[in-house]
Amino acid sequence: MNQSFEIAHTCESILSKIATDFVGLALQNREGPDVRWHYAAGNSNDKYKKITVRYGKGIAGKVISTGSPITINNFPENIHGKALEYPIMLAEKLLYAFAVPIFYKGAPKGVLLVGRRTNTPINKEEQNIVRQAAITLEGMISSLF
Amino acid sequence: MERQPVKNDISSYIIQSQEEEIKRIALELHEGVGQTLYSLYTGMQFIGNAVEQVEMKGYVSDMAELLEKTIQEIRLLAVELHPPTLTTLGLLPAMKSYLKLYTSTYGIEVELETSGKEIPLEERQRITLFRVCQEALANIARYADTVKAEMTFAWQFDHLSIIIKDNGKGFNIDKGWHQSTGLAAMKERMHLIGGEWHLSSKIGEGTVVELYLPFI
Fold it and tell me: Is residue A39 a contact partner of residue A60, using CB atoms and an 8 Å limit?
């Protein structure tokens, strides 16, 4: 099984393990600070393939710049900045998102995001499944750098 | 008796002052803060080359990398606030450049069609048209639920018309008008430069924004 297939399989398995609508994997570009969405499961369109976010911007950019998870509830209420600064939420019409960092050589280089199109947060147990999947993905993303 | 300023004059003054302030901040970021950070960055590289201690070299290199990211951020922020091409090259080149950024930000492709020869506009007109187009495109990203949009620039000898169209989900104009001030602001901005703004939308079929600017 090649790594791309394994990564896609891991994203899809999260979708089936927890009742979520969208799973996406974003990685910082090999060169430069920008971040792109590489894999998605449960996506309603292909917009994610064209979206590039800047380091520190959007959910993916913020998770990578801080190295910490981010939760968004009832988007676009109570967000920092404008709704337009959260392109993946708009593109996939998500109301809820939980995103965790993926580390490569000790530095946050990627993001695993799960989202719902209803404002229904995932529970602690489901959050742990996402965190565990992020750790699994850490061993797979080396080929992408 | 001294004439009281009319509402239009006040709105026009507020919008113009705001735009001038945005432009000033963008220039200050680009030419001021950006340049200073660049000097720091080159200094940091110089220190990095001179330092022999491996640990310290790595630390300096990390700081230089962070500075590089910050410089890029500052430059992009300045361009976002006020695209320099709007002043140097004109409305159409600035819009083409913005559309590239728009697609890479929201994943929505915009097909641009132009006809006629671009006629140089006053700065106030260029900025207004650019901002109104930006607002229309932002609405598509937020509400239209579509992967494609179309934009048409038609330059005639006596007017410019711009059409921004999407085949998204459309909306009820009466409701939208009451829920968002963005639509009214677009209309007001066009009115202040002597232009017209028309909106049509059908649920399930999409939305069309038409801008018309006569050359007096």
Answer: no
